[in-house]
């Protein structure tokens, strides 16, 4: 399996889908008298702490790839990569969701309820964008260096043809 970096436009598309969905849902719920506007503060704390924990897992993988750590469980490394990707993509959608609610609530900011909702949604957008950055950083930290070949950092500056060593069996055959 070969993992690839998440293209930047995935984040933009998911953000725009979230923006549209958040704005449309706020428009519909406003007309029906039910309000789903805003986000509880503890959710923001949970999102931020989750992002930090995933970044910590990815940092452990980074330490291993840089040689600062002797061994790491391969499942931990793969899970750190998967969680980093999931964090960045899901928080991109959530940032769009809360940005859509923010856009719909801004015209009524004079009312206390909407002022509180604007502050909550703006805070949620900031935390979600931080989590997107944490996920992208974590994804890059989970990149393994190439094992062999000219892309390996230990092979930089060396001529691959001059560093060729024939197999041991071939050397023994010449000695006979």
TrEMBL record:
Keyword Transmembrane helix annotated: yes
Superkingdom assignment: Bacteria
Transmembrane portions of the chain: 7-29, 41-59, 80-97, 117-137
Pfam families in the cross-refs: DUF3180 (PF11377)
Keyword RNA-binding listed: no
Region entry Disordered, spans: 144-176
Keywords linked to the UniProt accession: Membrane, Transmembrane, Transmembrane helix
Classification via InterPro entries: DUF3180
Protein name, per record: DUF3180 domain-containing protein
């Amino acid at each position: 399996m070969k993992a690839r970096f998440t293209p930047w436009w995935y984040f933009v598309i998911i953000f725009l889908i979230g923006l549209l969905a958040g704005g449309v849902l706020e428009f519909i719920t406003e007309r029906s008298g039910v309000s789903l506007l805003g986000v509880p503060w503890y959710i923001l704390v949970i999102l931020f702490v989750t992002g930090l924990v995933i970044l910590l897992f990815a940092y452990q993988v980074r330490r291993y790839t840089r040689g600062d750590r002797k061994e790491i469980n391969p499942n931990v490394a793969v899970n750190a990569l998967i969680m980093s990707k999931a964090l960045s993509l899901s928080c991109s959608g959530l940032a769009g969701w809360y940005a859509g609610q923010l856009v719909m609530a801004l015209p009524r900011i004079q009312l206390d309820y909407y002022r509180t909702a604007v502050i909550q949604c703006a805070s949620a957008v900031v935390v979600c964008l931080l989590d997107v950055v944490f996920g992208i950083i974590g994804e890059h930290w989970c990149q393994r260096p190439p094992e062999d070949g000219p892309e390996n950092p230990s092979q930089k500056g060396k001529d691959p043809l001059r560093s060729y060593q024939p197999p041991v069996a071939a050397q023994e055959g010449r000695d006979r």
